[in-house]
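Entry type: protein chain
Record version: 2
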Amino acid sequence: MAKTPGKSRFSTTIDTDLLKQFKIVAALQGKRLNQFMEESIRHILAKYDSKPTAPEKSLVPRVEKRAHSRVETTWPVSIFTSRGLVEGEIKDISKGGALIHCKYLPETDRTLELSIEIPDHLMKISATVEKVRLNIDDRDKVFPSYDLAVRFLGIDVDQRRNLYKAIEHKAHRTSL
């Protein structure tokens, strides 16, 4: 096999279960395994403040893709799936989507129906969402958890207005 310019081959051994989980996450992210591995190594180096020997492909600062700012919260959420109800918690939310932490992985290959409980406002919001990203936290090997980033696709007009008010209220309270 021909060597790719700027790339080096290496061989190592790795825990079988860890590699299997790594392959699953790479597939869920829609990335090739070697591409995902390079990205992971860059994150580890950044975590330990090491400088990679080769520069990143682009020196242009990464532009935030979000159209709406996020607000941290702890609102309970129910995800309705064909396999039943999955309970979770919204870790952060914006007018465009949310990050949901859950103990069980809902089906993420189709749209999902949510019921978001907003305790401060004594209301529930129903929404149709799609998966944007899925992260698996497997530090606890027996009970992994999941962070599911979703984009809002459909919310009733009145409920959308109420959701936006609740988000703005939460943002205002957080900034004080």
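Comment: Residues 54-58 have pLDDT under 50 and may be disordered.
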